[in-house]
Design goal:
Layout lengths: L5 E8 L7 H17 L2 E5 L18 H16 L7 H13 L2 E9 L8 E8 L5 E6 L22 E3 L2 E7 L6 H8 L5 E6 L10 H17 L2 E6 L1 E2 L11 H4 L7 E2 L2 E4 L5 E6 L4 E8 L2 H6 L45
Parallel strand pairs: 1-2, 2-3, 7-8, 8-9
Antiparallel strand pairs: 1-14, 3-4, 4-5, 6-7, 9-12, 10-11, 12-13
Helix pairs in contact: 1-3
């Protein structure tokens, strides 16, 4: 294309209805419609926004609390999202009605083999209401491995859309150098970065600062726009029957500290970062800025050395077992005469 598209992007920083899938879906519909009403053509939500980030996993400190953690996992499991499912259909209908792209973080409940595994997943939904694809987080971080399974390379894809080539990663995947390279090699122009950022990783800490550095570095190195959606949650957002309510009285507040932002391909903020509570960030993006930035640095083009480095991405779906069935018996007319 001689001319690249320009459009308005929206990043949502809002608390889910914690551990309640259906109520969180209703809130998602309202927020998507609000953003579309203000001219947004893409709306991005935080990591595992439906039905919430399992922040308790890093706070369990005793065997008694571990048993409570089991009950919380079951609650999360029952409110997780299957793909496909009525929950995904509801998001797709909303995207089609509002004529916007939706990028949503969910706790995904596996359905293929009924193994009971959850995944940290991004859903990419087109403005025509079609599910473009999904990406499962490749490596859950530390305590997250007690909640989610590991994804595979199937979802390391960039989607061709009328607002540019769209991709996304989750949280610490932005510190896995080759995940970004895999998306840049597909010409990614609009990158969605989904984060939770629990307390105490606020803006005044090294960890809080570094997640902003990761977003800005990703935009600068990949010469793309970054839409960073970060989670927000307070102790007041916890359900009244929350299993760790007593322990939660001593937790920091807010529990998830935000930090959402929109960043240009020069690494500079176009909106945010937002740390003051709930809100929707907006920015008008002009993808025609990208070619000028790539003149000096194109890490998968003129600034690459494929004669020295080769990157191979395995996008084969990984399954726990492959079943080889015996061939059906021969019918009488198929038996050779010599037998």
């Amino acid at each position: 294309m001689d001319t690249l598209p320009s459009f308005r992007a929206a990043v949502v920083q809002a608390s889910p209805v914690f551990l309640d899938r259906d109520a969180t879906l209703e809130k998602a519909v309202r927020l998507i419609e609000e953003a579309a009403g203000r001219g947004a053509q893409i709306v991005v939500f935080p990591e595992t926004w439906i039905p919430g980030y399992p922040l308790w996993a890093s706070r369990i400190q005793s065997w008694r609390e571990l048993r409570t953690g089991h009950r919380l996992f079951v609650r999360l499991y029952r409110n997780a999202v299957e793909v496909p499912s009525p929950a995904v259909d509801a998001l797709c209908r909303t995207a089609r009605k509002a004529e916007v792209y939706v990028v949503m973080g969910v706790n995904e409940r596996e359905r293929e083999f009924g193994r009971g595994t959850l995944y940290n997943t991004i859903l990419f939904i087109g403005k025509d209401g079609r599910l473009l694809g999904k990406h499962r987080k490749l490596m859950p971080t530390f305590h997250e491995r007690t909640v989610w399974g590991m994804g595979d390379g199937t979802g390391l894809r960039v989607y061709e859309t009328d607002i540019g080539r769209l991709g996304g990663l989750i949280c610490w995947e932005h510190w896995m150098p080759l995940t970004g390279y895999a998306l840049w090699a597909q010409g990614e122009q609009v990158h969605t970065a989904l984060w939770p950022w629990p307390a105490p990783y606020g803006p005044s800490t090294v960890e809080g600062e570094m997640h902003q550095v990761a977003n800005r570095h990703y935009a600068y190195q990949g010469r793309c726009f970054v839409l960073s959606a970060c989670a927000w949650l307070t102790k007041g957002d916890l359900p009244k029957d929350f299993e760790l309510a007593e322990q939660a009285q001593g937790w920091e507040d807010p529990l998830l500290v935000g930090g959402s932002a929109i960043i240009g391909p020069n690494g500079r903020y176009l909106a945010g970062p937002l740390y003051e509570g709930e809100g929707i960030l907006y920015a008008d993006l002009d993808l025609n800025e990208i070619p000028a930035r790539k003149q000096s640095l194109d890490v998968v083009g003129h600034y690459a050395r494929p004669d020295v480095f080769q990157v191979t991405v395995n996008r084969t779906r990984q399954v726990p077992a492959t079943f080889q069935e015996p061939p059906p018996p021969l019918r009488p007319e198929q038996v050779p005469d010599e037998l």
